[in-house]
Known about the structure:
Helix content: 40-55%
Order of helices and strands: HHH
Strand content: under 5%
Amino acid sequence: MTRAQLTDEEWQFIEPHLPIGEYGPYPKTLRQQFEGVIWRFRTGGQWREMPSEFGAWSTVSNRFRQWRDAGVFKPCWRT
């Protein structure tokens, strides 16, 4: 388990904000992909350096762009 992984409580907060079915079938690895995005921004690493436990780097990168464009991250920011 990496430090980038979410607690179940954190995931329950985030999951409802993710679009289901907007970009193809709802992936069974959605949480892993989201944690891959967290890893990328916590470490500052390149997408291609992402550990394989988060899935293919290209899939996680594409998923991030789709979520970004859909405004998924806006409700997650606390002000």
